[in-house]
Amino acid sequence: MGESHDGADTTLFERQREHLFFTWSAQRDVQPLTIVEAAGPRFRTLEDGWLWDLESQVYNVNVGHRHAHLQARMTAQIQELPAAAPNAALPIRAELGELLRRHTGLHRAFLTTGGSEATENAIKIARLVTGRSKIVTRRSSYHGATLAVLGVAGDARKEPYARHLAPAFHIDDPYPWTPETPSSWVRSLEALIEREGPETIAAVLLEGFTGTNGMQLPPQDFWPRARALCDAHGILLIDDEIFSGFGRTGRWFAHEHFLGGHTPDMMIVGKGLTSGYAPLAGVVVAEHVAAHFDTNKLWCGLTTYAHPVSCAAAVGSIEVLEREQLIANARDRGETLRARLTAMREAGLITSARGLGLMWLVELDRPAAPLHAKFRAQGAYVPFRGHNLFLCPPLCVTDSDINTIVDLLAAVLADAT
Ligand SMILES: Cc1ncc(COP(=O)(O)O)c(C=O)c1O
Predict the structure, then answer these.
(1) Are residue 269 and residue 389 in the same domain, yes or no?
(2) pLDDT value at position 191?
(3) Count of alpha carbons within 13 Å of 59, Cβ hemisphere only?
(4) Of 274, 307, 323, which one is at a domain's C-terminal end?
(5) How far is the CA of 145 from the centre of ligand 1 (A)?
(6) How many CB atoms lie within 10 A of CB 22?
(7) Is residue 319 domain-shared with residue 364, that is, in the same domain?
(8) Which mutation among 123, 243, 283, 390 tests ligand 1's pocket best, with the greatest number of atoms within 8 A of CB?
(9) Which of ligand 1's atoms lies nearest the C-alpha of 116?
(10) Residue 306 is part of which domain span?
(11) Which CATH number goes with the domain that contains 45?
(12) What 3-state DSSP class applies to 412?
């Protein structure tokens, strides 16, 4: 075993690459990222030392790393009862159900191990309830990586499978738009409903606030009009809050910025539900959807349904969001970030920036990939795609953290121009 000065295994990356795949990559292109420890909004790597975690791992470590309360909740559950059959009643499951009810305003949840599986079950539930099959999504949308979900969504990650998938039903993205020239999305949804026939459409599935496909603020009428069109045609409105939920945008759920007090019929949650401390996601449904299954069989199930340790992680994470007021923190720190990014744009360092809470996209005038290593060398892990950087730190960052992060980004960008 090779050893670094602090005793960490320098051969670990090669050992792991030999026998485990890395995701979304040609294996020989994967760059080493050996995480040694983590705390709050940062993690320490063998390669670059301490890094600001601007991806919150996979946009999921909302409360921050190694939070003692989550660890205590999970440890207590492991000691009390670490495994249980899907239909067993347990205090931790009842507790989580009540918390989800309180924060989503919806009625009953079906819990899965990951977000794609939750979307998959949302589609199944929508089809069972309506007896219809088509699922409408935005042209630029990501809802997960399983085949049925890739089939209905619009993200480029479906391309390698495209010829195996059934046709999808997309509406236009709600941008670009100005108050004077509303986008074509409403017309495209109306036209799609008319063309396909409302009696064939089970649901309209939309991301609460679109993640890696844009972080574009929709026009204010986007959600209310989608809600009204769904109501008019007996179509279910499904809100995918996997990325944007649990405080990421400065509200519990992103649709609260847009839906004006209305709720979707179903909401899909994941990622920040447990802050990534254990695998758990779910679909939470309104009372009228839940009522369908009072007498009709729910044809959905999983071996690790509502896993007790994952439920403990979710309860712990929600408790931390509440007690430490991290959602208000995300909103306020997001304003600091907005002001600093506006100044960077005015200084010509970036092309534009847009976002909500602590969910931001920064557009550059050049490909972002070559900058990634430079940011890492200076102490920040910054995810990117094309010309865009994503800034999504854990919700526990302070104003001083935000200023340190932006100073670091600005210095690297100024140096690179
Ligand atoms: C909006 C959205 N939906 C669904 C998913 C899929 O979740 P998972 O990766 O947990 O399967 C993701 C993951 O990035 C997402 O961002």
Answers:
(1) no
(2) 96
(3) 24
(4) 323
(5) 8
(6) 14
(7) no
(8) 243
(9) 11
(10) 68-323
(11) 3.90.1150.10
(12) helix
Per-position DSSP letters for 344-399, written without gaps between them: HHHTTS-SEEEEETTEEEEE-SS-SHHHHHHHHHHTEE--EETTEEEE---TT--H
User: Which pair of tokens denotes residue 282?
Assistant: 């779910």
pLDDT recorded at residue 155: 87
- Residue 306 has φ and ψ, to the nearest 5°, of 45, 50
For atom 4 of ligand 1, which residue has the closest CA? 143
Give the end of a domain, one of 288, 305, 323.
323
Residue 162 included in any domain: yes
- What spacing in Å lies between the alpha carbon of 211 and ligand 1's midpoint? 9
State the distance from the centre of ligand 1 to the C-alpha of 181, rounded, in angstroms.
Answer: 32
pTM above 0.90, yes or no: yes
- pLDDT category at 1 given cuts 50, 70, 90 is low
Among protein residues, the one with the nearest Cα to ligand 1's atom 3 is: 143
342 in the same domain as 295: no
For residues 218 and 338, membership in a common domain is answered with no
103 Cβ closer than 6 Å to some ligand 1 atom: no
Ligand 1 centroid distance, CA of 247 (Å): 16
> Strand 49-53 and strand 380-381: pairing?
parallel
Ligand 1 geometric centre to CA of 344 (Å): 30
Instruction: State if residue 119 touches ligand 1 by the CB under 6 angstroms criterion.
Output: yes
Centre of ligand 1 to C-alpha 144, Å, is 5
Per-residue pLDDT of 199-210, as tens digits, reads 999 999 999 999
pLDDT tens string 24-79:
999 999 999 999 999 999 999 999 999 999 999 999 999 999 999 999 999 999 99
State CA 330 to chain mean position distance. 15
Residue 263 pLDDT greater than 80, yes or no: yes
Flag whether 338 is in a domain: yes
Residue 302: enclosing H or E segment and its boundaries?
none
CB 240 less than 6 A from any atom of ligand 1 = yes
Residue type, 48: D
